[in-house]
Design the sequence.
């Protein structure tokens, strides 16, 4: 392991720099922990649909889903792969990082449209849940990969309004009734500042 110890020693700053580097790393670790707390990052490991409205841009989707025939199933039942736990959490991590990056950088569109990887996952989940109803329908052979090449139609091409209705724009549902995110202010701080809880 001489190569590893040499690499490790090259990463350790000289003695005169150790305190400033330690302070700087502590500041970044604190900011990262605070961002983790504010974003409720741990909640994304759950299947609770309320997690999807942690950011305001999912309000139309949540509001229309909560009044649809699919309201008894969670968002993850349709939008996350169920082939394995690894595939599920890898997809959630990738999609979650993309969503949080877009939201943080203010790149979110007014109308949210599903992307190709998500479309393929939704197709497989439609087939998984509704296979017994679709025995005589050709959609069981259609996948997210072969549909764009003219080898069939995806379920959502005909049933696109089933889970989320026709309303998808932020501007079209400004007063959508969705669960409000809880305040990130800790209870002890709220009590000391006399802020009323939400």
Sequence:
């Amino acid at each position: 392991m001489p190569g590893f110890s040499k690499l490790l020693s090259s990463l350790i700053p000289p003695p005169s720099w150790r305190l400033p580097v330690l302070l700087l790393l502590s500041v970044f670790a604190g900011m990262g922990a605070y961002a983790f707390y504010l974003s409720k990052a741990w909640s994304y490991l759950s299947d609770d649909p309320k997690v999807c409205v942690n950011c305001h841009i999912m309000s139309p989707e949540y509001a229309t889903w909560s009044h649809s025939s699919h309201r008894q199933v969670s968002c993850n039942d349709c939008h996350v792969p169920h082939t394995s736990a690894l595939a599920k959490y890898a997809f959630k991590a990738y999609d979650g990082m993309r969503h949080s990056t877009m939201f943080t950088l203010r790149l979110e569109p007014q109308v949210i449209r599903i992307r190709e990887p998500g479309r393929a996952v939704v197709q497989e989940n439609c087939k998984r849940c509704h296979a017994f109803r679709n025995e005589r329908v050709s959609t069981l052979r259609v996948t997210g990969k072969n549909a764009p090449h003219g080898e069939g139609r995806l379920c959502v091409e005909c049933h696109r309004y089933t889970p989320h209705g026709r309303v998808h724009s932020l501007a079209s549902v400004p007063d959508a009734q969705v669960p409000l995110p809880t305040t990130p202010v800790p209870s002890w701080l709220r009590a000391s500042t006399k802020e009323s809880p939400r």
